[in-house]
Structure formats: C-alpha cells, structure tokens
C-alpha cells in the first residue's frame, strides 16, 4: 500500500557519504521535529534526475528553506558511493542530503517502488516529492511517468509551501 497524506513515515536507515565515509541517518534523525522536503528519483546520474529534477531543488534551495523548511533530501535506490559521487558532481554536496536507500527498504515500506527492469535499471523508486512535518506526510506528489519531473519538481513544491 502506498503511503498517504497524514501517514507517519516508517522507520528506516539511509546511508550518506561524508568526508569521513558513510554515515547512517535514521528517519527519526532526519524528520523528528522538523519540516523536510524529500524527493526521490529513479536513479542518480540518470537523465531526467540529473538534468531536471535535482537542479531545480538545488537552484531553489534557499527559497525553499526561506519558506520554513528545515532540510531538503534526495533519495535514490543506489549505494552511498554513487550518491556521494552525484552530490559531488552536481554541486549539491553540503547543500542537501543525498540519501542512499541501498536495499530499497524505505522505498518498499512507503509503497513507492518501481520495477524498471525493462529499461535495465531493476527495482528503483518512483519519482516523487513529499513534504514531511515531524515524520508525518503533509503533501505527496508522485509522477505518472519516471521520465517526467513536473508534479514532483521544485516549482510544484514551492507552490505548496
């Protein structure tokens, strides 16, 4: 079942690359007592993710934070090495969290997994964005097609804020 507005996020642990290596970040650490924008992509370095989805959030980071958001995070079913390289190459390192849902545990728990095997990608996340307040989903925007980043893009999130 797909998570819905008003639902509490399930407990999960992500990995994020730092200068000292990988660190584990739990959903409690990321969301408890905070207002957070989380957006998910089918894969780091993939065309729509790298050319459209991520850049919109990086370009609008300060405006989003100015609207009362405490943090922004991007999630993908990739390992922490890939997410760290994407953070570095995109210029997003230190600006937003690049979370590795390496085993798709969180993605499956929220019911937003996508089988993209036909395109050679295997099990990934659907493309979405959500506004989370103290661990509770306040807005959820899921794309119909993984190649689109409109309803889940930064401009759409800004309209919600």
TrEMBL record:
Statement: the UniProt record of this protein carries the keyword Nucleus: no
BP terms from Gene Ontology: cell redox homeostasis; cellular response to oxidative stress; hydrogen peroxide catabolic process
Keywords: Antioxidant, Oxidoreductase, Peroxidase, Redox-active center
Record GO terms (molecular function): thioredoxin peroxidase activity
Catalytic reaction equation(s): a hydroperoxide + 2 glutathione = an alcohol + glutathione disulfide + H2O
Gene Ontology cellular component terms for the protein in this record: cytoplasm
Residues covered by the Thioredoxin domain: 3-161
Active site residues of this protein: 49
EC number per UniProt: 1.11.1.27
Gene3D superfamilies according to UniProt: Glutaredoxin
Highest taxon of the lineage: Bacteria
Leader sequence segment: none
Family the UniProt entry places it in: Belongs to the peroxiredoxin family. Prx5 subfamily.
Functional summary from the UniProt entry: Thiol-specific peroxidase that catalyzes the reduction of hydrogen peroxide and organic hydroperoxides to water and alcohols, respectively. Plays a role in cell protection against oxidative stress by detoxifying peroxides.
Protein name: Glutathione-dependent peroxiredoxin
Organism: Rhizobium lentis
Organism placement in taxonomy: Bacteria, Pseudomonadati, Pseudomonadota, Alphaproteobacteria, Hyphomicrobiales
